[in-house]
Design brief:
Blueprint: H1 2-28, H2 31-36, H3 47-57, E1 62-66, H4 72-80, E2 84-87, H5 91-105, E3 109-113, H6 117-120, H7 123-132, E4 136-142, H8 158-162, E5 168-171, H9 178-190, E6 196-202, H10 203-206, H11 209-216, H12 226-243, H13 264-275, E7 280-284, H14 295-305, E8 309-311, H15 331-337, E9 340-344, E10 363-368, H16 371-374, E11 386-389, H17 392-403, H18 410-431, H19 441-451, E12 457-461, H20 464-472, E13 481-482, H21 493-503, E14 509-514, H22 515-521, H23 524-530, E15 536-541, H24 546-556, H25 569-575, E16 579-583, H26 591-603, E17 608-613
Length: about 625
């Protein structure tokens, strides 16, 4: 009996092993799915059409690319459904352009690039989008799944590059997974704290069945022995699994986006703190411009409260050009005097001296979608009196509604605006001073500010010259200023302007460049010309990486690595089909005329570059470069 029981047990274990093994084989090779779902071997459809279908249903209007055989079906599919495809001269600028679209449109920006070096070229822009909290979808080509790791052209482990940079990464292994994978990626990009996502699409899920079958060398029958028969079966099964159920109808529509919202308790606590405040301040960061609350609603709520505001990042311009509550100067002094400070999407990183500029006696209300950013450096230099993990703009609108007829003390606002007027008057006096050579950059920037129309959009790409512009050139309204954000990336100008002009076709889009940063994206003047996207570029040419040089020379006694040349950048623009202007001391008296002529050319459809030779001032002394 015992022997029988042992045999029975062994038999049962063997049966379990066999069943388990079969189940694993069936799952691994997709045998059950293949049996239940049709493989249409005659279809000429391709996976790129499914990609385009999802993007179209999500309201995507533009796709930025640099072409490559790995992604051709995506690009052609997008064109067929009416998505405008813009090809750039460098992959990084395709992603920067998608970033700009995301920021200005409230939708996900989309870029598609080819495998290997095409994707590695985007890494800086994807990291910038992560730190700027921009919802962005990067589509990357890849070698066929069957050939991964076998030495195929441009085959590298792409997912490992993007996992630290993206909220979500995935590779699509079967055509049937294209739609659900993209829907998931797109909702993740927009939910919580927005950010970039990456989806890898191998060649064999993008091209039609017959072409993939031909490339795999699959034939109707296998001759040559057992090994060849097994290989033939494996290849046929692989292809069938790849396309099984590929063209079945699937829902491509958007999934619901999840955004953290403030609780009534948090709003009540903030209202109580603010109602007792004598000298409140609001600091707005880029996160305050994110959907779902329209920026116009946020602007209205800020104006009703009447609390003085400092604006940073994408929030610049939120209150228009000359708002009575927008304070631009001496922020450090104001923060030391304030009794309540509301940080709306503003982070205590290097931009707020890690929190050291905040008065320890002040009541700090911090609002941010991200817990890490909400409490950044609170273990060292500051402590929030109230920390709210929620959407900043929604919080502010609800706070204003809770406070009803509240209005900030006008004496506090008037005092801060008086300081502003004093500082800006000093800036104007400094702008009139003669520099040793060439033009005073402050004078140029004041002149540009006077000529900007109300519909202008400003793109900031540079160090010293752009840092001066941030104090002098005033954005005319919400979402009319674009800068790289916390990563401080040089080279965003061409891509950002490309995306901005597409989102705001009637706007006058200006790129404010340093001559160092211009080198990263000047080739996009070719893109502006080919695609008839007219923008204006103002280049402050001081023949140096001035922001670095300003510290390096006095500290270390050498300008090595910081010296450039007074290059004819206006001629470069001409060469790319644009229009170039030179502005220097010789035609300083015609500065307004030159700028107006540049505006007229741009309005007529020409991309324009104004090469402004500038001298050195002390305006930026003491600014940070690390």
């Amino acid at each position: 009996m015992e022997a029988i029981e042992v045999l029975a047990t062994l038999g049962l274990c063997l049966l379990v092993l066999i069943v388990t093994g079969l189940a694993i084989i069936i799952k691994k090779f997709g045998l059950l799915y293949i049996a239940l779902h049709k493989v249409d071997r005659d279809s000429t459809k391709n996976g790129g059409e499914l990609v385009a279908e999802v993007l179209k249903s999500h309201g995507v209007k533009y796709m930025f690319i640099l072409c490559g055989g790995h992604i051709s079906p995506i690009v052609v599919g997008a064109e067929k459904v009416g998505i405008r495809v813009i090809d750039t001269r460098h992959e990084v600028n395709a992603v920067f352009a998608a970033d700009a679209v995301a920021r200005l449109s409230g939708t996900v920006g989309v870029a598609a690039v080819t495998a290997g070096p095409g994707l590695t070229n985007t890494v800086t822009a994807v990291k910038n989008a992560q730190m700027a909290e921009s919802p962005l979808l990067l589509l990357g080509g890849a070698t066929a799944t069957l050939l991964k790791g076998r030495g195929a052209l441009q085959d590298i482990d792409q997912l490992c590059l993007f996992k630290p940079l993206c909220k979500f990464t995935a590779t699509v292994k079967y055509v049937r997974d294209i739609i659900p994978t993209l829907r998931k990626a797109l909702v993740i990009a927009q939910s919580g704290t927005p950010g970039p996502v990456f989806v890898e699409l191998p060649l064999d899920v993008l091209y039609p069945y017959q072409l993939v079958s031909k490339e795999l060398g699959i034939k109707g029958s296998s001759k040559g022995g057992l090994v060849q028969s097994i290989v033939g079966w494996y290849m046929n099964n692989y292809l069938s699994n790849l396309y099984a159920g590929a063209w079945e109808k699937r829902d491509p529509s958007p999934l619901p986006v999840e955004i953290p919202m403030p609780t009534p308790s948090h709003v009540q606590q903030a209202a109580e703190l603010l109602s007792r405040a004598k000298k409140p301040l609001i600091l707005l960061g880029s996160q305050s411009t994110l959907p779902p609350t329209p920026v116009e609603n946020l602007k209205e709520s800020l104006e009703k409260l009447g609390i003085p505001c400092f604006l940073g990042g994408m929030a610049r311009g939120m209150l228009g050009r000359d708002s009575p509550i927008h304070i631009r100067q001496r922020r450090r002094d104001a923060l030391k005097e304030a009794d309540v400070v509301i940080l709306l999407g503003m982070v205590c990183d290097f931009r707020l001296s890690y929190g050291r500029v905040l008065n320890r006696r002040s009541k700090i209300v911090s609002v941010n979608r991200t817990k890490e950013q909400l409490y950044k450096n609170s273990d060292m230099f500051w402590k929030p009196s109230l920390a709210v993990q929620a959407d900043p703009s929604t919080f502010l609108v609800e706070l204003q509604q809770k406070l009803g007829g509240y209005k900030c003390d006008t004496e506090w606002v008037t005092m801060l605006k008086g300081r502003d007027a004093e500082k800006e008057e000093n800036n104007r006096k400094e702008a009139e001073a003669k520099t040793d050579v060439h033009l005073n950059p402050l004078k140029v920037l004041h002149c540009v500010d006077e000529l900007l129309p109300d519909n202008s959009v400003l793109v900031a790409d540079g160090g010293d010259f752009v840092g001066s512009a941030a104090y002098i050139v005033k954005p005319r309204g919400p979402l009319r200023w674009l800068d790289p954000g916390a990563f401080g990336t040089l080279g965003v100008g061409g891509g950002f302007a490309l995306g901005a002009k597409l989102c705001r076709p009637d706007a006058e889009v200006w790129i404010i460049y340093g001559d160092g940063s211009l080198g990263y994206s000047v080739a996009e003047f070719d893109t502006f010309t080919r695609h008839k996207i007219p923008v204006l570029a103002l280049v402050g040419t001081d023949a140096a990486w001035m922001q670095i040089c300003r510290d390096q020379v006095p500290m270390l006694g050498s300008s090595v690595g910081c010296t450039l040349a007074y290059t004819d950048y206006h001629v470069v623009a001409d060469g790319y089909g644009g229009k170039g202007y030179l502005l220097n001391r010789e035609n300083e008296d015609k500065m307004v005329e030159v700028l107006k002529a540049a505006q007229a050319d741009c309005k007529a459809g020409k991309p324009v570059l104004i090469n402004v030779l500038i001298g050195r001032t002390s305006f930026r002394e003491g600014s940070i470069s690390v």
